[in-house]
Amino acid sequence: MPATLTDPSPRRVLVLLASTRADGNAELLARAAVAALPAGTELRWQRLAALALPPFEDIRHSVGSYPAPTGDLARLLDDTLWASDLLVATPLYWYSLPATLKLYLDHWSAFLRVPGLEFKARMAGKAMAVLCATSSGSEPQLAQPLVDSLRYSADYLQMRWLGHVLGDGTRPGDVLRDEAALRAAARLLVGGA
Known about the structure:
This protein has 6 helices and 5 strands, in the order βαβαβααβαβα. The longest helix is centred in the middle third of the chain and has 13 residues, at 99-111. A 5-stranded parallel β-sheet has the order 2-1-3-4-5, with helices on both faces. 35% of the residues lie in helices and 19% in strands. By secondary structure, it is of the alpha/beta class. The chain has a single domain (12-191), classed as Flavodoxin domain (Rossmann fold, 3-Layer(aba) Sandwich). The chain has helices spanning 25-35, 71-82, 99-111, 119-123, 144-156, 179-191, and strands at 12-17, 42-47, 85-91, 127-134, 160-168. Helix 1 packs across helix 6. The protein is globular.
């Protein structure tokens, strides 16, 4: 739950960059969103493409449980559990999630089955917001499968959905011309898009 005026704990935002391109349009939207956060907000950034995440193997019905993650996956899990808010900044790839983001979500299935981790209980009450860079322009419905995938994932873990913002941009920097999306991104974490 985000901090309130009577809550002494700081708000902790994990920005998950799902693009394979550094400084891409989704990241520019994320920078606009976090620039509007109040002083005292703690931030961590994770560029998913820069992490050496192992492939996900579904052993739910054979082994049943998963070992505690190691390496970059353990660090990503720690950051996820540390956060009060997850801000997902992603481009739209073929009407869906980039592979880096899908792999992260696939590992949630493992986290749910790590003995003693209690991932679902620890995620409940956290918030999720999504910034999506898309070239769909006048066809925002083309990003709906991506948005739905993330919203349903948040709902499953009983996370609060803060909303999403679509920014129009294909080439690097294009989203900076989408003033409405930049304004909405700046409001997303501080009062809704």
